[in-house]
Amino acid sequence: MTAAPLFTLCVTSGKFGPRVGSLNLDREDGTPVIRTPTPALLTATSRGVVPHFSRDSVQITGAIQHIQLPFESFLDRNPPVLTLVGGARPLHQFLGYETDKHVLTLTLRDPSDGRKMPPNGNDFMSAHCTRGVRKVNLPTWKTYVQKCKPDLVVALSDTPFTPPPHSQKRMTKSIERSISWLADFLRVLDDPSASCPRNVLVHLAGGAEPHARGEFADRLTEPIEQKDAVGLSPFNTLDDGVAGYVFDLLPLHTTLAAEACRPIEPSSPVDELLKVSDSQRSSPDSSIRLAELLQASLDPLPVHKPRFVNSPVSPHEILRLVREVGIDLVDGFWAQRAADIGVALDFRFPVPAESSITSADCPAPRTRKDGKMDLGHNLFDSMYRHDHSRLASSFSDGHSAGQSHSNDLPVCPCGACSPRSPASRLLHSSVDIQSWQDSQRPLPPSALQPPFVRSYVHHLLHTHEMCSHTLLAMHNLTVLSAFLEGIRKVLGREFPKDELEKEIVRFEQKYDEDMVLWDEAATMWLDVEHARGKGRLARERGKQTASTMGTAA
């Protein structure tokens, strides 16, 4: 039986522009094909797990389907533990993901990690783990991939993580190495146990230079010379062996920030907990530059392969890339990072009517001086101390929606807004059994419960409870998934391109892109984080003294 194509386009505007498709994973092992409508969400992980999530949290979060696994965090041991698992699906088995639901993409480096790295060499790539920097050469990476058996894998690419700007010589070297590494990754020699990796994705190299990016794409589509064709049959070009394309936006943002003379790294010891991406912001101008760079890469390439985008910094940027370029899977790191710093996302696309986003019992996000609304709520803020409403005003919760038929808000199905009672009970003794049976109002299994409220999450954040970030991450990923679903619905209208343009303008007019909320939340999060550890009591006494100074009668 012929395998289903990895990607199918349903609606397209040509080589560039908004598009709707379906990513179809056929493992050719008798299991059902996993189909995902695109644009879709790609969930980020750390050490193989979704940050703040247990296995149960992953299972109840429907937004999590495509998962990206950076392998570098497992390099602290040799051999890496993932290569010792064995079986048909070692990654799913070891990390607890469901084979019939979750699609795993393996990449060497974390695309959201913008720390300075030693330069790559001609035959190795630098990766970062808990024990420092490790050098990974191509044969080793191929061995890891063969043993881990991911659903999709990203080929090694020589992306400079040294401070920009980068010289033309460095860009040329980056292109040469990336092409050479891709060819060797696809090459199958006489080893009978070896096979060409399936569903190989390639990062489109070239940095922030359109000509360099176009040169790399041209090299992908050039016929393979006879002297280099050993082991590459039946491919006529390297692109024939590539299943899709990857764009890492973080190094591009870093380069654009350097060109604009903006700070790109934390400037003081207090900021050590912040990531490089925390200071990156989007704007119409930066989105235009990014679109030009991505278009330069895609211009020589076929249109029918999926396009993955890592580390966008705002929904505004995602919308513009959907409109100007056409992207299919979007990394959710931005939404997950918002959960780290205590932000509960609260926005929708397309923007609903004003009457449906204002509610007396559930306040909307703060409106700034320019009249634009925040993208969510900074739950570290003391203003939420007595706010007993659900996390998002633009979504209803499952419990309220089930009791009121007049509510026209969409329901947020996340575990924070629509929690359910346990499907089963752990009864440890006869006393527990008797207590459960004697209950006058036994709780039915899997019944919708009232949502977790802002004041409760505010309390959890200030008491350093890890479950606060779990609740926020479940919610934020669900909101971002609903945002992408909204894009698909708009593109399903009669005139998709015009309709999308109109809705993007409304979104830009409604929601703040300057991310003032993000800066405020990061500051408060740092204050709470630094209140822990050695010397905490002394710092708290000093803070209390400062706050009460001059207030004595």
From TrEMBL:
Gene3D superfamilies: Queuine tRNA-ribosyltransferase-like (3.20.20.105). It comes from Lentinus tigrinus ALCF2SS1-6. Residues 18-222, 290-491 form the tRNA-guanine(15) transglycosylase-like domain. SUPFAM superfamilies: tRNA-guanine transglycosylase (SSF51713). This is tRNA-guanine(15) transglycosylase-like domain-containing protein. GO terms for biological process: tRNA modification.
